[in-house]
Amino acid sequence: MKTDDEGRAGLLYGIGAYGMWGLVPLFWPLLKPAGAVEILAHRMVWSLAFVVVALLAVRRWGWIRELVRSPRKLGLITLAAAVITVNWGVYIWAVNAGQVVEASLGYFINPLVTIALGVLLLKERLRPAQWVAVGVAAAAVLVLSVGYGRPPWISLILAFSFGVYGLVKKKVNIGGLESLAAETAIQFLPALAYLLWLGSQGSATFGTEGTGHAALLAATGIVTAVPLICFGAAAIRVPLSTLGLLQYLAPMFQFVLGIAYFHEAMPPERWAGFSLVWLALTILTWDALRTARRSRAALAAAERAAAAAAVAATTGTLRADAGVASEPGRTPAVS
Fold first, then answer.
1. Cβ–Cβ under 8 Å, residues 135 and 112
2. Beta carbons within 8 Å of 190's beta carbon, 6+ residues apart
3. Peptide bond into 268 cis (omega under 30)
């Protein structure tokens, strides 16, 4: 019963995390007239403030000593902070520039980019279905390039930056809250310096556009940290295959918002490109579920075989003992 409750809680955490990421395009326009870079800087500063409070609440500080003593991990965290800065900045700019649909495409193709990075950087071998999915995705990018009259740079930058971020986070292997704290600590001083410079130039909107605007800028820390905390709670409670399916909620919400709320254009060639992306994701998901099912079946078969071997070994030992006991003048050994 406890396992079922944990699974349900994990599912709700996952839906909450990806749902919030999917609805966040509604938040960034509220921060105008602040520009994308100012919003990004506030996001970095206030995210650190939020995670420090969270760490004080849970009293988790031991990871800092371990991180400081590992130059390799520090370097990886710095790289993660750099690529997620690019990702955040481009995403905020895209939403406020009326490119929500193209931004959503970036997160649709992110799983495919992650696979491509695994092949290029980690020398991983793809299954046939994964090759087909990657090929279909490449065709989709070509079709969308024709439709946009240019390569979908926003989508590609978002997909590759988040793909590299995920790869680096895998190498660092520390918790979500701790990782966010380390990354925002690295981002904090440059972000604060930019905000102070902006204020000295009289160009800052924080404090000049009213209390409500200042509160919204401060809320960027909550908007950043809460979905990540929910994601971390989901990751330890639900299977990876379930988490993989949930990740499509965020770009789907963003795509629907782009069309229905922001009224972005979707000419036929863009529908064709997105359809190819969705086909690639369908192939990828089918292959992942099939592989997971086969792995579970193979594991169950191995466990049954091991149990049968153990029973056979026990039976053989008992028969041997019985045979010794039945010999005249012999008694079985007592252990």
1. no
2. 44
3. no
Long-range contacts of 111-114 (CB under 8 A, 24+ apart): 111/244, 111/247, 111/281, 111/284, 112/137, 112/159, 112/280, 112/281, 112/284, 113/159, 113/160, 113/162, 113/163, 114/163, 114/166, 114/167
Rounded to whole angstroms, how far apart are CA atoms 37 and 29? 13
Cα dist from 146 to 169, 201, 232, 267, whole Å: 34, 42, 39, 11
Taking only the tens place, the pLDDT of each residue in 220-272 is: 989 988 887 788 778 777 776 677 778 888 899 999 999 999 999 888 988 99
Q: Which are the contacts of 322, defined by CB distance < 8 A and separation ≥ 6?
A: none
pLDDT in tens, 204-220: 899 888 899 999 999 99
Show the 3-state SS of the chain: CHHHHHHHHHHHHHHHHHHHHHHHHHCHHHHCCCCHHHHHHHHHHHHHHHHHHHHHHHCCCHHHHHHHCCHHHHHHHHHHHHHHHHHHHHHHHHHHCCCHHHHHHHHHCHHHHHHHHHHHHHCCCCCHHHHHHHHHHHHHHHHHHHHHCCCCHHHHHHHHHHHHHHHHHHHHCCCHHHHHHHHHHHHHHHHHHHHHHHHHCCCCCCCCCCHHHHHHHHCHHHHHHHHHHHHHHHHCCCCHHHHHHHCCHHHHHHHHHHHHHCCCCCCHHHHHHHHHHHHHHHHHHHHHHHHHHHHHHHHHHHHHHHHHHHHHHHHHHHHHHHHHHHCCCCCCCCC
pTM attached to this predicted model: 0.80
CB atoms within 10 A of CB 127: 12
